[in-house]
Structure formats: structure tokens, C-alpha cells
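Handout for the seminar on molecular recognition.
Each group receives one record of this type.
Step one: identify the two inputs.
Step two: read the structure output and locate the region that could contact S-adenosylmethionine.
Step three: write two sentences on what you found, then compare them with the reference statements printed after the record.
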Amino acid sequence: MVHNILRKYGIRGGNHDQHFLVDERLLERIADYGDIQADETILEIGPGIGNLTERLLKNAKKVIAIEKDPELVDVLKDRLGDNDKLEIIHGDVLKVDIPDFDKVIANLPYSISSEITFKLFKHEFKLGILMYQLEFAQRMVSHSNSKNYSRLSVNTHYFADASIIMKVPRAAFSPPPDILSAVVKVEPRPSPFEVLDEKYFLSFVTALFGQRRKKIRNSIIRNKQLLGIENMKEFITELPKDMLNKRPENLEPEEFAHLANIMFKHKQGI
Ligand code: SAM
């Protein structure tokens, strides 16, 4: 029983994003969604006391578990350290170099969800089964013309197919968090639309969502320096009018890419 393990080691959690999953059925389901094969390396971020880790270890070739809290690293070593399929990395996931992995399965520290997700998108992997705060999960999977559609939605759509596969109640954790959670399935794939320069595209999306209420035309003019186009007022007439009249929440991911590509070509003199 996971509750007993918390008691045995005197772990209370509650701070530093520490809410441990104690619902045994849910832990099994999360591991099952990973469909782990015998030749696969699984990355777990924030393994905590190792309740998910021990389930991941059953089928995987290897599990790499990155944990920041030294007290929890000691618990992990004590509980699962004998298993030579487990590699524990003691460190901050945002600072360490993440080794190669096939799948990432984790109940994440919610306060750094964005940073972790963007870091993961820089890696090649087959599948992610990731627990987030519900609102964050909803923003990841949102489509245009909805209030949750954001920079995160466009970025996620660019890198992967993502869907919410289950909502998780507070009672599944110890201590229970104040918020609801959800598990997101992330399946990386090539972008469904052309992007000439990834960095330029991503910073364009960030700049536009930074001014959510403004029309695209006004945001682009305001951000001319960032976009590297001096004569923006004249140049903007070359961009599709229908897109310029929209607001970021009404622009499809491929329309962001279309605009970014035209501006990038102009900037590069292509
Ligand atoms: N996976 C465990 C579970 O489901 O019971 C614990 C999940 S808890 C929500 C998040 C875990 O991430 C905690 O163990 C916490 O110490 C760890 N953590 C927080 N910030 C971290 C960071 N920057 N790098 C690595 N681990 C971190």
C-alpha cells in the first residue's frame, strides 16, 4: 500500500509540488497506457517515493528517474535501488541533460509543467503519458476559437497529437492537492504544416499570444523589431488580410506558420 510507504519513511509531501499518487488502480492504468515494451527505455520525471516507478520497471528495459528532492532520492534507493534496470538521476529536470529515452511517463511537478513540456519537445520520443493540472491539460489540447486556445496549444499541435485520456480527482493523491488533474497522451509526429524556421515561428506565436486581445495586424506592427522587419508598415500589406484581421485565439496553427514563413523569407531576403 502506497499510504504505508509514505508512513514508513515519514514523508508528508505537500510542498515543492509533492502530491503522491496513492490510488493503486490509477497507478496501474497510467503504466498500462504506456504500453511498455521489453526493449524500451522509460523516462520518469519526479518519481517521488517510486510508486509509479515500480510499475514502470515491470516491463521496461530501463527506467531513468529524475528526482530533485534528496530525501526522496534516498527513499527511492532504499525501495528500488537493487533493481539494475533503474537509473536514478538526482537533480532538477530543467537543469540536467536528459538522456535518450523512448517514452516518458510521469506525474509531473505542476509548477514547472510548461518548462518541462517545452524541454521534452526538444527530444525525440515515441509517446508521453503525462499527468498535469487539469487546466494546463485543457490548454494543451485546445483548438482555435476557444478560450483555452493559447501559445501552449499551438506549440503542442506543432510537435505532437495530444489528448486528455483521463481526469483525476483530488482524492487519488496524498496529500490531496487543491486542484484537479488530468493525464494527457502525447504522440510526437512531424509537423502537419511547413515551418521554415522553428525558432522564428515559436517566438512569433509567443509574441502574438502576449497580446491576446489585439488584432494580428497591430501585434505584428508592434513586434517589428523582434520579427526583424524594419519597413513593417509597408510590408504588412503583402500579408493575407483575412488573417491580419483576426485575434490570436482565432488563428489556426497553420496560419501562424504561414505568416511566420512569409516574414521569415522577407527578413532573410529569400
Ligand atoms: N511520481 C510521484 C507520484 O506520483 O507519487 C510524485 C509526483 S509529485 C506530483 C512531483 C515530484 O516531482 C515530487 O517527487 C518532487 O520532489 C519532484 N520534483 C519537483 N520539482 C522537480 C524538478 N525540478 N526536477 C525533478 N523533480 C522534481
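Reference statements: The chain has two domains: 2-188, 198-268. The longest strand covers residues 160-168.
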